[in-house]
Amino acid sequence: MNDVLKTAKSCRHYAMCKIDFLDTGLCKSGAEKHYVSFYPQGRMDIYAALAENTIPVTEKCVEIAESCDLCGRCDYQCYFVTEMKPSVVMKALKEHVRLHLNNGGEVLTAEKDSILDELKEIVGDYWATSDRAVALTYSHDPCPIAGQRMPDYVIMPNSTTEISAVIKLLNSHKIPYAVRGNGSSVMGFVMSEGAVIDLGRMKAIDFDEKNWLVKVGPGVAAFDLQKAAVKRGLRVNVAEPAALVCANIMCSGIFSTFSASYGTAADNFIDAEFVGHDGEVFRLSDKSAPNLLGFKKEDSTIPGICTAAYIKLHPVTSDEGAVFVPFESLEPALDFTKECAMRRIGLAIGVLGGEYISTFLSPTKKLAAEVKDTFRDKLKIGYLVLVIGDKYALNSIKEMKYNYFDNRMIRILNLGLPSLTSAKWLNLLDELADGEPFSYLGLKHFTDLAEAALAPSPAKLVRDVDPELRPFFEKLYSKPEMTDPVWLNMFRIISSRMGREKHVVCLIIYLPIDNELITEINNEFKRIADSHGLKNDYGFITPLDDGKRCVFEYDYYLDHNDPDEKIKMQQALMEAGMMIERYSAETGAVTWIRYVFSQGFRRKESFLYSIAGVDECPK
Amino acid sequence: MPEIKTRDDEKYLLTGATGVLGSHIMAELLLKGKSVVIAGRPLGGESLKERVGKLLHWFGIKHLEGLLEIYETDFLKIRLGLGEDEYENLCSRRLSIIHCAADTSFSEKNRERVMKSNVESLTEILNFTLKSRTPCFHFVSTAYAAGTDNIECPEAPVNSAHFTNVYEESKACAENIVSKQCREGEVPYTIIRPSIVYGNSITGRSLKFNALYYPVRFLKHIRDIYLNDIKNNNGTKSTESGIYINDKGVLHLPIRIFIPNEGKINLIPVDYFTETILSIIEKPATETFYHITSNKPKSMVRLASYTERFLNITGIEIVIGTSDADEMRNPPEELFDHFIKAYRPYLSDKRVFMRKNTDRVTCRNLPPDLNYEIFQRCMTFAVLATG
User: Fold this and answer.
1) Which residue, A59, A567, B248, B254, has fewest beta-carbon neighbours within 10 Å?
2) Could you tell me the CA-to-CA distances from B66 to A245, B61, B62 in Å, in that order?
3) CB spacing of B232 vs A427 below 8 angstroms
4) What is the ipTM of this complex?
5) B163: closest CA among B153, B206, B155?
6) B334 — contact with chain A (CB < 8 Å)?
């Protein structure tokens, strides 16, 4: 496989090229045409399919190739996330199509199709298609347990009325459908051999600050909503930046480190509007509406299409900051986390492992690997607990006598990472600690010394970045928000890097903050992945409901183009699933996210707890 | 104090063989052709055999491995964690025991761990000692088990109720237990009390770079950080801290080292320690305490001048008294002060360790004076080894 094809096939489908997270501006054709096919992600898929001769050159294919102006924005965006430069694929796609046309190659046009005509009548001529190139870009994702499913139709409605009409039409023809946000869940949920309804055109955001809510259309991405909220001095609780907010609620319910105070699932919204499977519109708060707040432990399908959600707005104070409290091992990190949550200290709390910290902070894989080793071996930091809060919350942590990295220290550390990995003096910090690890962080002037030692600068941080992109990245890292943990946690643009080395499959469970139980399950996750030779690591833990429960993510990684790894992953996921079910049955307090999927509008209490004698244990 | 009769073919059971002192004792015994039984634990995925093997390599005596027997033990477990037969067999061999294993943490936060390791573990070790009717039990303690109540410290049981840290306290407690139980069990014993040990005065080599080495290693890194700042970053951070290169091209690094009084630091090289302890265990007198200490402790002023010369810096100032927390300090001074907190009592120690017993057994063989040449030799090795 040549490098261009390899790049094309390595697209993770995280949809990061569909949001303007680096202020470069969006891919022009994508922003205009909305189909994922016109974004770099779609072009990567199309080029790979053309190169491997699995689709013909179609009308849309020509339009998609020709609409790319080779501006190179995708290189900045994709490099930030995966260290890939997709513009080589964009060029190759244009070249492939140009040669095909020059050689008099056939361009496949869509066959006459009465259903398609009816769909076009509802949504407009341009917004329904059966073109194979477009269909391809909606047919797969890197999920190791989902195969490709080519839809007959891709439809992009622009209103609730249109959605309603589309559903009724599809029902009348008995055509199955899948509803798609940005597809960034990458779990194979948003594919169908019938129709895929892409809600990406419905991007309305309407604030009602008097009622502390914002009405969000189903095509609004988390990043864009947060940006709009922040402009008004407010905040929303959202997850991955490219995830569409409505779809995200529907899928798993939104959880983030802010869920420590803002909650999850039904805590995040005030109301929502749906188009049911019968095509009728209802509101969640309607007395006659289906009960989406309830929960049943079963694999479920979506109860309808969420066409708008009324999301809660949260106030932001001017004295917010963040600290990272270091721990050598997981247990004391959990104790501290539980204490903060129970005392309601902090807005956002997350117990992060070495993999996340190093990957999130480092602009390249190479640096991330070095940073991970340095944190573990030299600084003896196994886990960092992030706490975001106002000055009173952060002062409480100081009063609790914990040493931590504060905002300034985090900036120094981040921009000085390359010096940190080569610093010989780090061993001495640990040697001299004698029972008081990290005590140096409590000193008044240690930050100044660290600044002298690490000589942090955007130029230093990006010194290993591809030379062509380096000036851009240097400028990017000179922006204060790029090293501000509060901003980074609100917008979560660096968390997309967790799939940089390989595609990531997240294993997520809800359970009590019970050190023994968490340690056991953590070890089991590791044992299973290790036995299959899969890269794996602890992800994060965030307390929920005043520390009575938490959400725990463990991550398995795979090369989604490697059939062997795919099989290993399938086996590992099956074993991990059985392990979770076992703990669920034994403890009555462990819930696997598998059963929460498609029930994201339910109350968190319904899946975090069970009532003895009433509920199946656990729910 | 009757002298204990020893045999030329005497075998030793040694604990703490992977530590600094224990490893040197092991090497010296092997070089003298003695057979040594090592009792200890694996660590971090490395078996005891592997750990000891690395040490033999370091000492260049891998060829003497045949003189060793290795037993993985846990002193907190019944029969030292050994199987019944193995334990009985070891008991029957009447080995002389050198108990060197210890947790050397000074931190109060590690109290439980230190007491467990240095005191609680004695129960099974002494059970073994009594059962095996050992020719002699040698307990390697510390000169600082003497406590802080008396300036003059005789080679005698501890007569102090106050200690600088949990390590000293644990060793004093252990000495009392060893004395009492060995006396009651009629087992000959010695208590051996070294002061602070640094590297080999002749070769400069050392296995560990703590104690005397910490301040020098720390200042070397600080020097390099600010030299780099001056060279590559216009010295912005250096200027803020009053650090600069003087007209002689030497880095001026203003650091005040606060010590409580004008006392001195008692240091001995590891080669002297080894030579002396071998003299003691070859001709031990029961119920005897031995101070392996320096008769010429060094002042911090002298050590600071050695350090300045070695690192080619100026600005280290020894200040008698305590630092004011609110006083303006530069970052290196603050960090240095923070890290030497635990060592401060040893930097200006006024205690005098009598060494009558040691002088007798060594025919008054005194440790070499820590002059600049020895200091330089040891520090050069440390810098090369640790970077």
Assistant:
1) B248
2) 71, 10, 9
3) no
4) 0.85
5) B153
6) yes
State the Cα torsion B214-B218-B221-B227 to the nearest 10°: -140
Tens of pLDDT along B15-43?
999 999 999 999 999 999 999 999 999 99
Closest chain B residue to A428 measured between Cα atoms? B218
Strand ranges (E), A145-279 = 153-155, 177-180, 195-198, 205-208, 213-216, 234-235, 269-276
Q: Cis link prior to A618 (omega < 30° from 0)?
A: yes
Chain B residues with beta carbon closer than 8 angstroms to that of A453: 225
Sheet holding A205-208, edge to edge: A205-208, A213-216, A304-312, A269-276, A281-283
Q: Does B294 touch chain A (CB under 8 A)?
A: no
Number of DSSP helices (H) and strands (E) in chain B, helices first:
14, 16
Give Rg (Cα) of chain A.
Answer: 24
Residues of A in contact with B224 (CB under 8 A): 425
Report the residue of chain A nearest B112, measured CA to CA: A435
pLDDT of residue B2: 56
**What is the model's pLDDT at position A147?**
81
Which of A380, A412, A429, A432 best tests the B interface by mutation, with the highest count of B CBs <10 A? A432
- Percentage of chain B modeled with pLDDT above 70: 97
More confident of the two residues A211 and B286: A211
Mean pLDDT of chain B: 93
The verdict on a CB contact (< 8 Å) between A444 and B334 is: yes
* CB-based contact B335 A428, cutoff 8 Å: no
Give chain A positions within 8 Å (CB) of B226.
452
Chain A interface includes B387 (CB < 8 A):
yes
CB contact under 8 Å between B238 and A428, yes or no, is no
For residue A304, CA distances in Å to A311, B39, B312 come to 18, 70, 76
Chain B contact for A377 (CB, 8 A cutoff): no
Residue in the block written with tokens 């106050």: B162
pLDDT value for B326: 64
Query: End-to-end CA distance of chain B, in Å?
Result: 48
Tokens representing residue A131 in the block: 């073109």
Q: B221 contacts in A (CB within 8 Å)?
A: 424-425, 428
Q: Hey, are the CB atoms on B229 and A432 less than 8 Å from each other?
A: no
String of b and e for B153-171 (b: at least 16 CB within 10 Å)? bbbeebeeeebbbbbbbbb
Which among A420, A427, A431, A440 is the top mutation candidate for probing chain B, defined by the most B β-carbons within 10 Å of its own β-carbon? Answer: A431
What pLDDT sits at residue B8?
47
CB contact under 8 A, B225 and A449: yes
Mapped onto helix, strand or coil, the DSSP state of residue B236 is helix
Tokens of B355: 């060494």
Residue A333: enclosing H or E segment and its boundaries?
A: helix A330-342
DSSP for A396-419, please give it: HHHHTT---B-HHHHHHHHHTHHH
- pLDDT 10s digits, A487-497: 999 999 999 99
Is B240 in Cβ contact with A455 (below 8 Å)? no
pLDDT value of residue B346? 92
Per-residue model confidence as pLDDT tens digits over A139-193: 988 888 778 899 999 999 999 999 999 999 999 999 999 998 887 766 777 788 9
Using the Cβ of B221 and the Cβ atoms of chain A, whether some distance falls under 8 Å is answered with yes
Which candidate in A422, A429, A434, A440 is best for mutational testing of the B interface (most B CBs within 10 A)? A434
Residue ranges of chain A with pLDDT lower than 50? 617-619
Can you list the pairs that B86-89 forms with residues at least 24 positions away whose Cβ atoms lie under 8 Å?
A: B87/B128
B239 interface with A at CB cutoff 8 Å: no
- So what's the pLDDT on residue A619? 44
What residues have CB less than 8 Å from A117, skipping those under 6 apart? none
* C-alpha Rg value of chain B to the nearest Å: 22
